[in-house]
Amino acid sequence: MNRLLVLARHGQSEWNLKNLFTGWKDPGLTELGIEEARNAGRRLKEMGVQFDIAFTSDLSRAQATCKLILEEIGQPNLKTIASQALNERDYGDLSGLNKDDARARWGEEQVHIWRRSYDVPPPGGESLKDTVARVLPYYIREILPRVMRGERVLVAAHGNSLRALVMVLDGLTSETIPSLELATGIPLVYDLNDDTTVASKKVLEG
């Protein structure tokens, strides 16, 4: 693989476990989340993957996942760049609320719209469209040029910030991207063509 880009959603967080909207709040990983991150590193090691640089968000669950992956592949001191641009979608007033409590307060349909529409933000927060508008310029400016130069890049981030990248890489639309789910701790391994399109994609499950 000459133009390697690996995307990894963080392992299970304490708030994932409690069914809470997390967003820019900063809970740590659960024991399962730590193991998911380590397993992601082991699967990448089995492929013989090594990286030249890593990117992550400003949030500790993504940073811890990145660190654990790099430890497993034997690159614990790899240069890693953290940026708020890769943070999870900001859920605004929903942050910290149990999803069932939010449905009881605002109704099942309204919460579903906030969670699964492309361009309707929750109160005080970001829509997926807003998240895409934040993540993509950073990807185009900071990450993609490195991949195109032949650097092998790891991005450890969040379900929604990574969906923004997958939307572009996989050619998804505003209609199809909201239904995409990215599992915790499962790396997506991309090899890019010289025109930035995808030559191959592997999902490292199991």
3D architecture notes:
By secondary structure, the chain is an alpha/beta fold. It has one domain (4-203): Phosphoglycerate mutase-like (Rossmann fold). The chain is 40% helix and 14% strand. It is built from seven helices and six strands, in the order βααβαβαααβαββ. The chain has helices at residues 14-17, 31-46, 60-72, 99-106, 108-116, 128-148, 159-169; strands at residues 4-9, 53-56, 80-82, 153-157, 188-192, 198-203. The chain has a six-stranded mixed beta sheet. The longest helix is centred in the C-terminal third of the chain and has 21 residues, at 128-148. It is globular, with a radius of gyration of 16 Å. It starts with a strand and ends with a strand.
Please give a quick description of this structure.
One of its GO terms (biological process) is gluconeogenesis. The protein is built from 7 helices and 6 strands, in the order βααβαβαααβαββ. With 206 residues, it is an alpha/beta fold.
Name of the top-level CATH class: Alpha Beta
In N-to-C order, the SSE pattern is EHHEHEHHHEHEE
Estimated helix fraction: 25-40%
CATH topology label: Rossmann fold
List low-pLDDT spans: none
Q: What oligomeric state do the depicted chains represent?
A: single chain
Q: Going by CATH, what is the homologous superfamily?
A: Phosphoglycerate mutase-like
Look at the structure and give the mean pLDDT: 96
Largest sheet: 6 strands, mixed
- Compute the gyration radius: what is it? 16 Å
